[in-house]
Amino acid sequence: MAAVGYVRVSTADQDPALQLDTLAAVGCAKVFEDRASGARTDRPGLRAALDYVREGDVLVTWKLDRLGRNLPHLIETVAALERRGVGFRSLTEAIDTTTPGGRLVFHLFAALGQFERDLIRERTRAGLAAAAARGRTGGRRPAVTEEKLRRARALIAKGLSVRDAAVRLRVGKTALYEALRGPRKAASDQPRTE
């Protein structure tokens, strides 16, 4: 079993010495390093570390936030390591997925992450339903307002083409055509002809 270290500092002027010394003290002979924000998805050092570790190895970090961009990314990364038979250790938080207690803690993290995603989804649905009840819908505001539609109808009545009216009102001709057609009924609202 090899201990493989991963170090990340956010900026070029930060010193990774503390992380490197700590990983060396726990026996990490091979250490991969990134100098990048944790929010970045393309971290070559992390990619190299993940490619390097083999079944039975343990990926070691100084802190959890060195590995994951956020909780879902952290859980996804550790779960991928677990599927490959690779353990994970975070020294500061004393989490070690090669032990039953460490696996339990990480499964709790995963459950909390799923709980958080479910709450966000539930709040979003409730917010959309409340907005719809007040007559508001999501999405972009229409390019053709009621005022522009009224003016477009007047211009077209005077003989202008839809294209010319759209240019004068500074709206797209497709948007104007749609607005002139009016709201379409959904297929379920159409009368059935059987």
From TrEMBL:
SUPFAM superfamilies: Homeodomain-like (SSF46689), Resolvase-like (SSF53041). InterPro entries: Homeodomain-like_sf (IPR009057), Recombinase_CS (IPR006118), Resolv_N (IPR006119), Resolvase-like_N_sf (IPR036162), SSR_resolvase (IPR050639). It comes from the Bacteria. PROSITE patterns: RECOMBINASES_1, RECOMBINASES_2, RECOMBINASES_3. One of its GO terms (molecular function) is DNA strand exchange activity. Transmembrane segments: none annotated. SMART domains: Resolvase. The active site is at S10. Belongs to the site-specific recombinase resolvase family. This is Recombinase family protein. It comes from Roseicella frigidaeris. The lineage of its organism: Bacteria, Pseudomonadati, Pseudomonadota, Alphaproteobacteria, Acetobacterales.
